[in-house]
UniProtKB/TrEMBL annotation:
<dbReference type="Pfam" id="PF00480">
    <property type="entry name" value="ROK"/>
</dbReference>
<protein>
    <submittedName>
        <fullName>ROK family protein</fullName>
    </submittedName>
</protein>
<dbReference type="InterPro" id="IPR043129">
    <property type="entry name" value="ATPase_NBD"/>
</dbReference>
<comment type="similarity">
    <text>Belongs to the ROK (NagC/XylR) family.</text>
</comment>
<dbReference type="InterPro" id="IPR000600">
    <property type="entry name" value="ROK"/>
</dbReference>
Length: 310
């Protein structure tokens, strides 16, 4: 049995996964603040799964998906500002308390692995495009996460696609994230609402000109990310997840229309069939937690093989 956790800014999603890859238990709980709070959340999540019926002695590893920077192969989490963490070795802080190996991966990279697994082992190359507060992506090829030399493969959010677009938090103008990140849209919309992006789309449907301009930028930014991922990595499919994926057809119809429009004048772009290579992650899918469990299983296996053959 492997446990996977998706530690988010407000809540943590935890799953238990058996040897066949089936999710046998799932719990959700609030995420604590700061290093101590996050460490306690990880421990509490495992305890909650045990309380829900997962056999403690059957847990072989714990994998954790975290926002922020995680250097490939390490358990150091850096710059997870939404959790109040500057630098934390999460495995060193939790493994002694849990009694099993703990592995850590960036949450979007973990979600990419989980999304690939949820496709049923279809094989080939898949990009997971996370549309949430920000925009980022992870790439999986034949079940293996491709991180690149420095762990930044797939980070499309800060690629500038519109030199006249809005200023991004990174300092550039017209980044994908400045056009289609949830926080950027909320900031540009500027009207109080529990769900600013949904509020903006509703206003766009009522012909509000400001909202219509923001909606157009949203579709332009997402479609640009899709083109970048296909043209640079030639992925078979781009799976869209994250908080904005909850917009469903209101998002996907606009993105596909933008991809079709941009390919109208290019035979080469039409030959790529981009609208048919975009999919939406099913609502409620525990992709990041499942992917974290797979990361934990893989690293535990690698460690065991090193001990056996070292």
């Amino acid at each position: 049995m492997r446990v996977g956790l998706d530690v988010g800014g407000t809540k943590t999603d935890a799953v238990a996964v058996d040897a066949a890859g089936t999710i046998t238990g799932r719990v959700r709980l609030a995420t604590g603040w700061g290093p101590d709070g996050v460490v306690q959340t990880v421990v509490d999540a495992v305890e909650a799964l045990v309380a829900a019926g997962v056999e403690r002695g059957g847990i072989q590893s714990v994998g954790v998906g975290m926002p922020g920077q995680v250097h490939p192969g390490s358990s150091h989490v850096l710059h997870a500002v939404n959790l109040g963490i500057a630098d934390l070795d999460l495995a060193a802080a939790t493994a002694p308390r849990l009694g099993v190996p703990v592995s850590v991966e960036n949450d979007v990279k973990a979600a990419a692995l989980g999304a690939d697994a949820l496709r049923g082992g279809a094989g080939g190359t898949m990009a997971f495009l996370n549309l949430g507060t920000g925009v980022a992506a992870g790439i999986v090829s034949d079940g293996t996460l491709w991180t690149g030399a420095h762990g930044t493969a797939g980070e499309v959010g800060h690629i500038a696609v519109d030199p006249h677009g809005p200023i991004c938090t990174c300092g550039q103008r017209g980044c994908v994230e400045a056009l289609s990140g949830g926080a950027a849209i909320a900031r540009r919309w500027g009207r109080p609402a529990p769900l600013p992006v949904l509020d903006m789309l509703d206003a766009a449907d009522r012909a509000d000109p400001h909202a219509q301009a923001l909606r157009a930028d949203l579709m332009i930014g997402v479609s640009a990310a899709v083109r970048i991922l296909v043209l640079t990595a030639d992925v078979d499919v781009v799976v869209i997840g994250g908080g904005l994926s909850g917009l469903g057809d209101r998002l996907m119809d606009g993105v596909r229309a933008e991809l079709e429009a941009s390919a109208a004048a290019s035979e080469f772009m039409r030959s790529l069939h981009l609208p048919g290579r975009v999919q939406l992650l099913p609502a409620g899918s525990p992709a990041a937690a499942l992917g974290a469990a797979l990361v934990g299983a893989a690293r535990e296996r690698d460690t065991r093989e090193t001990v056996f053959h070292g």
